[in-house]
Fold this protein.
Amino acid sequence: MKKDALEKFITAHRGEFDDKIPSENIWSGISRSVFGAKQISLWNSVAVWRAAAVLLMGLSAFLLFSRQNATMPARTLGSQEFKDVESFYAAQIMEKAALISHEGLFVDDSFTQDLQKLEAMYSVMAEEMKKHPSEKVKDALVLNMLVRIDLLNQQIQKLEESKKKGKMEASI
């Protein structure tokens, strides 16, 4: 009999039941009673993730700074290699310039101007190298020396050709 009264009450007030939504506390209580108590996993803890992030950042910083300190001696080794290359090319330049001045023959004005410009550029780059050493400046210095050597070789070739031409004219 009570069952019929309950059914009549539910059917009479059906619209009122569909309109209401139970609170979150009621649903969590139902889920705990049905599925058991919710266990918090260690990996779902925010504190564990924060600690892991701090540890990772610290390890990254340590590796970064230890790597920078390890590369410093390599730069000084590259500096010594550059000094060796520089002294080799400087010796070649001096040798070729001495050969040209020893010959004492015709020296083109554009040749001397180009050589002076290259020497001026070299001294500016050498100052830059002292202030801010970098691979780009090293490469530019080496390239400058190679261009000067090439320019000197061209002048030597011109002098040799003019000598041959002079000898041929003298023999005729």
Q: What stands out?
A: The chain is about 85% helix and 0% strand. The two ends are 147 Å apart (CA to CA). The chain has a mean pLDDT of 78. The chain has two domains: 2-35, 73-171.
